[in-house]
Amino acid sequence: MDRLTKDDVNPKILQKLLEDSDITIEDALENEMILNMGPQHPATHGVLRLLLRLDGETVVGCVPDVGYLHRGYEKMAENMSYYEFIPHTDRLDYISPLANNVAWVLAVEKLAGIEVPVRAQYIRMIVAELARVASHLVAIGSFAMDVGALTVFLWTLREREKILDIWDILCGARFTNSYTRIGGVANDAQPEALALVKKFIEEIDSNLSECEKLLNTNRIFIERLDGIGVISKEDALSYGYTGPNLRASGVEFDLRRATPYLQYDKIDFKIPTFSEGDSLARYFVRADEVRESAKIVRQVLQLMTPGEIKANLPKSVLPQKVEVYSKMEELIHDFMIVNFGINPPVGEVYHAIEGSKGELGFYLVSKGEGHPWKCKIRSPSFIHIQSLPHLVKGRMISDVVAIIGSIDPIMGEADK
Amino acid sequence: MELKQLISQKLQTSFPEAELEFSEFRNEFNVKFNKKFVNPICKFLKEDSELEFLLCEDVTAVDWAKRKNRFTVVYHIFSLKLNLRIALKADVDETDCVIDTVSSVWKTSNWQERETYDMYGIKFKNHPDLRRIYMPEEFEYYPLRKDFPLLGIPGSLPLPKK
Predict the structure, then answer these.
(1) Do B110 and A386 touch (CB under 8 A)?
(2) B86 touches chain A (CB under 8 A)
(3) How far apart are alpha carbons A296 and A410 in whole angstroms?
(4) Which chain B residues are closer than 8 Å to A253 by Cβ?
(5) How far does B13 lie from chain A, in Å, by closest CA?
(6) B70 to chain A nearest CA, in Å?
(7) Nearest Cα to Cα of residue A316 among A113, A102, A122
(8) What ipTM was estimated for this complex?
(9) pLDDT band at residue A350 using 50, 70 and 90 as cut-offs
(10) Interface contacts (A, B; CB < 8 Å)
(11) Burial of A106 (0-12, 13-18, 19+ CB in 10 A)
């Protein structure tokens, strides 16, 4: 291929590519070229676009370009009530929708000062941990598929299918659940759903080991990931890494332990941490976290007792639908909440949970009205994509795919 | 409670001229200061050996629409050592819509500041790469400002040329 001239590339982008590396276009080598990867690329996990500056097969510069899935959820949140936004959180990180539901209602409850019954908190913990397991299973599977091990993807998705079945019974939807409500959850967990949860967490350990056997002894898989995309502890913190990616770099930081929310302070669990900071470590952390999540769910099932699933605050918590049709009081409250919202006091809060990708936070500003004055979504994927140039610089082009898979971005969340 | 006093004391002794204001809501600690001091204060909070706010979680802004200082830039930072999150705030006026960047302190704020610029039009001085991040480069408006309509502005997003 001929050398690229300046006219071939958008001058603004070219300028940025040049600033990102020390090599200028004038002293380009014989094989240097600029490659556009994505937004429609099977290995970019959605619509992520990367501009790669290549010298032969070596990446000398990388500029990520996001925004192809930008739907303006923050603007939309300012124009709808707190209840109305719950279904929209499903569409952020669409692999673990229930974790987003939980994060949103926890932020709103902190703002409005609502105390939630213990049983509802336990149910939320179960669904959030199941969401983490589902997300990590997809992450491991698609990551293995990116580096050429297709079978694992089918096997992990088989496991995830069981979680979707549980969600189907629990809240009537397999994918976009919208299960949590401000002040509780939509309906109580049915005994059948809990029995399925129990069965699932008993089986997940051996089923995951089966998948791991395909990978951990696979020389091609190990050699494609070992020492690829290394990020040091200091850099990881400076780049704002959270979640499994940070723990793979040797920082034992987990919001469930650092700032306990729900009932996590009553639960005994380990924080899997690896010190290598490479793609392989990020895979190991996720696999270990699946087992820890199963451990958490097992304890929660033991601690759970029958009880209320919604706070008794008629002015801010939606009543059960059955009561709305039969009682006047409930009908009035339902009408008021749906039409005018819950009016939390004037103030601003930031609440973050340990989502499956990292720290998922919501920053809410209230002016005492039914809709938020401002809502900011702190999405981990957006932050992690930012570090891609640092990770891929100097690596081979085939490593780019492995590195994107290892940091596990979800574009629905990164682009909001 | 003691931690918050420690932080406020340390900041007051180091930056007596920064017009510091401390407040608390729902057990969250907020520090407000003059925007000129954003860089030194962030650097101090990160590097002080007793505090070590190593993790910058979030940078964003709030548009207050009719207030005199129209925007507030908000930083949420977390200390792994103290297990404490605090919010830093600095007011920015529409006529002088500029604030110093903190991307030299935390690398993560690079994109977050780009996002804030994209959505609110607040310029970050000395930012290494201040471009729009979600919206196209040719877009003339700032979508999260309160005067931008929810339905968008017809014709503001031109179709690609043939």
Answers:
(1) yes
(2) no
(3) 25
(4) 55, 80
(5) 27
(6) 14
(7) A113
(8) 0.90
(9) very high
(10) 95
(11) buried
